[in-house]
From TrEMBL:
Keyword presence, Coiled coil: yes
Protein name: Transposase
Keywords recorded for this protein, A-Z: Coiled coil
Naturally occurring in which organism (per UniProt): marine sediment metagenome
GO biological process: DNA transposition
Example of a GO MF term: transposase activity
Presence of keyword Zinc: no
Coiled coil regions, renumbered to chain: 53-80
InterPro entries (UniProt xref): Homeodomain-like_sf, Transposase_8, Transposase_8_domain
Length: 81
């Protein structure tokens, strides 16, 4: 199965969909399967994105990307010296 990359908006929407299933009494494993992810992915997403609005998730991803870029830049500069 090919690995699919989801945008923060898609992740939050899938988490909301899963919560609807769970609130209806469906077990987490089955709710995860219904939205097309594994149970482990559900828990990881809930830990990272739980309670965030879409705008906040976008900002989080943007900051993480910038942080990685800056870390690489610092590492490259320290290797040059």
């Amino acid at each position: 199965m090919a690995k699919k990359t989801y945008t923060p908006e898609q992740i939050i929407n899938k988490l909301r969909e899963a919560e609807i299933h769970i609130n209806q009494g469906i077990p987490i494993a089955e709710a995860s399967r219904k939205i097309g992810i594994t149970q482990q992915t559900y828990y990881r997403w809930r830990k990272e994105y739980g309670g965030l609005r879409i705008e906040q998730a976008k900002k989080l991803k943007s900051l993480e990307k910038e942080n990685a870029r800056l870390k690489k830049l610092v590492a490259d500069l320290s290797l040059d010296n």
